[in-house]
């Protein structure tokens, strides 16, 4: 039994265990996590409660991905070898986030959110780079690209929200004041620019990845608009501007992606 085989099995097991760990820990600690969140002051960038239902989709897609990549037929899949270590790390960090928040280890929890973003971004980029030179199968599009997109999108937005809350918690800015509104505005706009860059970097990959990534960020920004319009015109305006920027870039990427796909198909022998 070669070392490559052992690494493949370890990667498959890590993703399966990690997906179960993140779901199990978050489900078990959900009530405690909500209680800890409710203890703090109202955030000027927190989305409406309904927006957090995106986790149902994220966990479902993560489990579907974990099962798909664990199939014996996918053990030596070159795409899964490229993205698998990073998705597994993101799953375990998500589970650890659900451990640290109830323990009120907010610094460690924030570190987990940043780590999840980095790991998922690497998986997303490696997927896009691989797709430039290889035709992806149905499973790779719907059970690899699709799970990564919404997860990365939500974590992108979550970091902007969480960093603002962490600044308030550490008394770097006053809760509900000009400082929090200014910081939240900056983080929302920086997050929007980052989102636009990620969409553009991923547009060479499957549409299931970059479309769901951008759509999930828009979902989060809409939640902020709904939740904050009566409390902060500043952060509401920032969320609206951020959403407009993301929507414009996403629309442009979709148009460019369709044109590029048509060009690639027409360049193949035997196609019109």
Description:
This protein has 272 residues and is an all-alpha fold. It has one domain (3-255). Helix content is 81%, strand content 0%. It contains eight helices and no strands. Helix 2 (54-70) packs across helix 5 (138-169), helix 3 packs antiparallel against helix 4 (106-133) and helix 7 (207-228) packs antiparallel against helix 8 (233-267). The protein is globular, with a radius of gyration of 19 Å. It starts with a helix and ends in a 5-residue tail after the last helix. Mean pLDDT is 93; it is low at 261-272.
List the helices and strands and how they pair.
Elements: H1 3-39, H2 54-70, H3 78-100, H4 106-133, H5 138-169, H6 178-202, H7 207-228, H8 233-267
Helix pairs in contact: 1-2, 1-3, 2-5, 3-4, 4-5, 5-6, 5-7, 6-7, 6-8, 7-8
Notable features of this structure?
single chain, disordered C terminus, globular, 272 residues, mainly alpha
- Termini separation: 47 Å
Q: Tell me the domain tally.
A: 1
According to DSSP, the number of beta strands is: 0
**Low-confidence blocks of residues:** 261-272
Note the total helix count. Answer: 8
Computed Rg = 19 Å
Helix content: over 70%
Q: Overall pLDDT, averaged? A: 93
Q: Which word captures the global form?
A: globular
Structural class: mainly alpha
Run of helices and strands: HHHHHHHH
Largest sheet: number of strands, sense, barrel closure: none
Oligomeric state as shown: single chain
* Percentage of residues in strands: under 5%
